[in-house]
Amino acid sequence: MKPIVPLVIHGMSRDTILNGYNIPQEAAIMVNLWSVHMDPQLFPEPNKFQPERFLDLDGNFVKHEAIIPFSTGHRVCLGEHLAKMELFMLFVSLMQRFTFHLPEGAPEPSMLGTLRLPIAPINAPFPFELCAVPRG
Ligand code: HEM
Predict the structure, then answer these.
(1) At CA 84, angle to CA 33 and CA 66, rounded to 5?
(2) 7, 37, 87, 95 - which has most CB atoms within 10 Å?
């Protein structure tokens, strides 16, 4: 839905010129992963929760080259494969053991996130309430 790491910050190892811009060694470079994931030309109505945008007509998952939550290039996240496996196992084991619903009268979780700063800016959900009912 949205990148967990919206901005990646890099330093420069030396002065350089990129696309005609002088970039001095002391500059901090911000890579804006948010702008890619939320680009309406790539993903129409990007704020809409619409998982089917990643499925083909037969319902099979289609990898989209603009989905880059782990960044890209030489400094791509070293934990990408571990993180994907862990998220898959956590999500599947929760789905196998529980059904989920909102408490009576509770508002739906906000689709907006909020920035937290443990190490890098992290896009985290606002707190929300959810009932997890063990499957019989
Ligand atoms: C959903 C989980 C995760 C997300 C979305 C994520 C995302 C990212 C992003 C965007 C970067 C910056 C890449 C760049 O500089 O261009 C990064 C770097 C990194 N990540 Fe992750 N990460 C996740 C989990 C993990 C885990 C589980 C580990 C290790 C166990 C890990 C280890 C690292 C390391 C070591 C780097 C620095 C790579 C470098 O600078 O060469 N990450 N991650």
Answers:
(1) 30
(2) 37
